[in-house]
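ASSEMBLY PREDICTION REQUEST
Request ID: AP-0331
Submitted by: J.K., bench scientist
Number of chains: two
Total residues: 228
Priority: normal
Notes: Please return the full assembly, not individual chains.
Input sequences:
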Amino acid sequence: MGQCNCRKKRKVHERRCGTGRAGTPGGDCQELTDVERAIETVINQFHYAVKGQKEYLTPNEMQELVVQKLPHLGKCVGPLEEKIECMGDPDEAKLEFGEYWDMMGDAAKGCRRK
Amino acid sequence: MGQCNCRKKRKVHERRCGTGRAGTPGGDCQELTDVERAIETVINQFHYAVKGQKEYLTPNEMQELVVQKLPHLGKCVGPLEEKIECMGDPDEAKLEFGEYWDMMGDAAKGCRRK
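STATUS: Completed
Returned structure:
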């Protein structure tokens, strides 16, 4: 079995081909599309923002993410701040990936309406 | 009022500064972050996939988008196909931006579980 000859090392890509596993030409080892890379960026940001071993964000971590990573989009979305405040205890409440994705959607919708 | 001296021309960016309007140093004219550019890519893809003047995707257009733009992520998500089929008439049913964003979230969740 030949060495996987893909150059691009992307998280989704690695899972798709696995390191060292032979990549079938044009098979699973194609380049990710721009939209897939964009989705991957939003996924990875969730993991970067999560502190420790847990699998969720706290309201404080989400707030930090909005300030650091959504300096423009975050402004389009008044409700995003309110949503974060309504989540409960800033250090205890849990924001799972699905809710995080929904909030990114709110930022997207907010920015589209402008 | 000085000419806006921003080099990066991004859709959200233009709306933020507007062409010709003075950009306040470090104000609204900063560079978009990677996460904002990623969200913008997913937003723009919705508009590219919409045919004609309408503001929604048909199931057929969404199916085409999945085949062309989610060759990898689309595989993680059996239900995405079913969701598209359950939407009704392939040429008539309407997929608004919010539902499109939710489906992208399904692709993201499907790929995270792998």
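REVIEWER COMMENTS: Chain B has six helices and no strands.
SIGN-OFF: pending second reviewer
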